[in-house]
Design brief:
The chain has 284 residues and is α+β, with helices and mostly antiparallel strands. The protein has eleven helices and eight strands. The longest helix has 24 residues.
């Protein structure tokens, strides 16, 4: 069986540093291919990054054509990110294609990726993002960044591999999306019923947050919202952040503790994102 997947022509043995001029060549180096399982793993094993199919030979959400894979990263650096643990997961064992160690993996701090290959390509970028979000919801310890339709995954030179060889049927994925949406609506109702009374200064922020879907924005924006709340309210803003973020257990708290004063993101970023979803100051 073959699958549609785009690979970079550039082989890398390490991640590209932020701001490196190679980025432009890298983003234009992906080639839309139809490959079998061994061809896919050989390219990953030799350091070639991969992503969804894009038009104009340019990796960008506006150029998305289709996606027939979903990658899920596990970076907990404990047993939950080991090949043996992940390959025994019932969903992975039934529908996963391969589990392998990522470039940042070490024996002391294990990291791994589960690669799912779909039986049918996803044609719409919004549907691909929704599918990836549903998969992240299923695996609570996974890296949230993996839901972007133009997300690429680095190859992993000389990685350890646990081959499973199964496909993920689109029908199963659609059922999972239904469960994800249903649970999401339930979670929103639960958050709405919590006894949280923001101060007068937080009323406007709380109103802005109501229109921002935590699973409907990019990971960078998700973090920016948390940073804006932290910058404005410090510890007093944590309950507000937790009620909004819909993160995995402990995720918001861990991210919150990593923020430092003067991080360059203010509450204005929260209002700016809210305006993209139709929010207006004082409802006017």
């Amino acid at each position: 069986m073959t699958h549609k997947i785009a690979f970079s022509k550039i082989a890398l043995n390490q991640k590209i540093p932020h701001g490196d001029p190679i980025w432009r060549a890298f983003n234009g180096s992906f080639e839309n291919l139809t490959l079998d399982s061994m061809e896919i793993m050989n390219l990953i094993y030799t350091g070639h990054a991969f992503t969804t199919w894009h038009s104009n030979q340019w990796r960008d959400s506006a150029n998305y054509l289709l996606g027939q894979h979903i990658g899920i990263d596990f970076d907990t650096e404990d047993e939950r990110s080991t090949l043996s643990y992940l390959s025994k997961d019932k969903f992975v064992a039934r529908y996963g294609h391969v589990v392998y160690t990522t470039p940042s993996h070490t024996p002391d701090k294990p990291r791994a990726r589960v690669l799912f290959l779909l039986d049918t390509p996803i044609q719409q970028s919004a549907n691909y993002g929704l599918s990836a979000s549903a998969m992240l919801w299923l695996f609570g310890t996974a890296d949230r960044q993996c839901k972007d339709p133009c997300r690429f995954f680095y190859g992993s030179v000389n990685c350890n591999v646990e081959y499973i060889g199964n496909e993920l049927p689109l029908s199963i994925l659609q059922s999972l999306i239904g469960q994800y949406r249903k649970t999401g609506e339930s979670a929103k109702r639960t958050h709405a019923n919590k006894e949280y009374k923001p101060s007068a200064d937080q009323d406007e922020v709380a109103a802005a947050l109501k229109v921002i879907p935590p699973w409907g924005i990019g990971y960078d924006q998700w973090v920016a919202v948390l940073m804006g709340l932290h910058a404005e309210f410090d510890e007093a803003g944590l309950p507000l952040a937790q009620n909004w973020a819909d993160g995995t257990p402990g995720e918001v708290d861990r991210k919150w503790r990593s923020f430092k004063p003067g991080g360059g993101v203010s509450i204005a970023s929260v209002f700016g994102i809210a305006k993209e979803f139709g929010w207006t100051k004082n409802g006017s």
